[in-house]
Specification:
The chain is an all-alpha fold. The chain is built from 2 helices and no strands.
Amino acid sequence: KKQEEAEERERIRKKKLGKFKYEPPRPDVLLTEELPSSLRALPAEGSLLQDRFDSLRARNLIEVRDKAKKLKVRKTRKEVLRESHKDLKYISPYLKEKPHWM
C-alpha cells in the first residue's frame, strides 16, 4: 500500500524541467481613475503570444529560462606587417639596388 501511495505522489508531483523556477507574472490592473465607464471601451493590453508562453511555462511544458544576455563584441586588432617596416636581414646577391621601402 505504501508503494502505491508513493507512486501516486510521484505522478501528481510537478517535474522540474530547467534549473529556474516559474514565477507567475503580476497581473495588469487599472486604477479606478483609469477605468472607462463601460467594459467595451477597455483598451486591449498584453500580447497573445506572451500569454501563451506563460501558460506553457506554468504547465511545465516549456523550460523556464532567463532572458538571453547580449554578448559584447570585442574588436580584435589584426597585426599587419607593412613593407615600410620590414627589416632585411638577408639581402639576395641578385638584388643590385635597394628596394624602394629601404
